[in-house]
Each structure stands twice: as structure tokens, then as C-alpha cells.
């Protein structure tokens, strides 16, 4: 049944093109292709469906904003200090978890660090 629905929908849409438009419909759709109208209807449908979820997300972010601001105020200087000590992250291997649960991050040796070709910047 699911395979038949797209076929029926496609046939229905193509049959709409064969129907005569009234003068009012022709004036409203002047300058709009079928693709543009379909895209507009599709986006309106998404907006209608996603509206409540976006409203909930907006409310949640408003609730979280004070806590995030406090976190940044408290942790910002410590993270800046840590990044100054660590430097370039590409000079380190990926973290490893040891059997005892410890996590280690090994620094790469100078031979392991790949120099970038001249004129290129790593992003």
C-alpha cells in the first residue's frame, strides 16, 4: 500500500494540470510555477507541524539561559587558561581509556606531527 500512494499522488498532481483554471486562479498563480507553489505549501506544512516544537524549544532555552551565563562566567577564565596551556590540539593523539578507567591523552612526537603544505590552513 505504501508503494502505491506515491504513484496515486503523482497521478493526481499531473491530472490537476489538465484542469482549466478560473480567471481568479490564473491571476493568483500568475508568475508562480507548479514547483514554486509546491515548495511554498511544503514549507507552510513544515512550519505548522514544527511550530509547537519550536515554541517548546524557545521556552526551554529561556529557562536555561541564566544557568548557561553563570557557567560561562565561572568556567570561562579556567577554560581560557587551560587552552593556553594545551596550545594546538593537533599536537595530541586521541584520548585513550586504560583498563583501570584512567583516560590519557598522549602528546605527538615531532616526527608524528604532519606539517601542512605551504599556503594551506587547517580548519
Q: Which percent bin holds the helix content?
A: 55-70%
Strand content: under 5%
- Which outline best applies? extended
Q: Compute the number of strand runs.
A: 2
Please outline the major beta sheet: 2 strands, antiparallel
How is the largest sheet built, in terms of strand order? 1-2
What is the count of DSSP helices, taking H or I runs of 4+ residues?
3
SSE-based structural type: mainly alpha
Written as H for each helix and E for each strand, in order along the chain, the element string is HHHEE
User: Residue ranges: pLDDT <50 for 5 or more in a row?
Assistant: none
Compute the CA-based radius of gyration. Answer: 29 Å
Distance between the termini: 48 Å
Mean residue pLDDT: 77
Describe the fold and architecture.
With about 120 residues, the protein is mainly α. The protein has three helices and two strands. Strands 1-2 form a two-stranded antiparallel ribbon. A hairpin with a 5-residue loop joins strand 1 (about 95) and strand 2. The longest helix has about 55 residues, at about 35-85.
Outline the fold blueprint.
Elements: H1 4-18, H2 23-28, H3 34-86, E1 96-97, E2 103-104
Antiparallel strand pairs: 1-2
Amino acid at each position: 500500500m505504501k508503494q502505491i500512494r506515491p504513484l496515486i499522488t503523482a497521478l493526481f498532481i499531473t491530472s490537476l494540470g489538465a484542469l482549466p483554471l478560473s480567471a481568479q486562479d490564473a491571476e493568483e498563480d500568475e508568475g508562480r510555477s507548479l514547483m514554486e507553489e509546491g515548495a511554498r505549501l511544503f514549507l507552510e506544512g513544515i512550519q505548522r507541524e514544527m511550530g509547537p516544537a519550536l515554541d517548546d524549544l524557545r521556552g526551554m532555552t529561556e529557562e536555561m539561559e541564566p544557568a548557561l551565563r553563570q557557567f560561562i562566567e565561572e568556567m570561562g577564565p579556567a577554560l581560557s587558561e587551560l587552552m593556553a596551556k594545551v596550545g594546538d590540539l593537533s599536537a595530541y593523539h586521541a584520548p585513550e581509556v586504560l583498563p583501570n578507567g584512567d583516560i590519557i591523552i598522549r602528546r605527538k612526537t615531532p616526527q608524528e606531527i604532519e606539517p601542512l603544505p605551504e599556503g594551506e590552513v587547517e580548519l
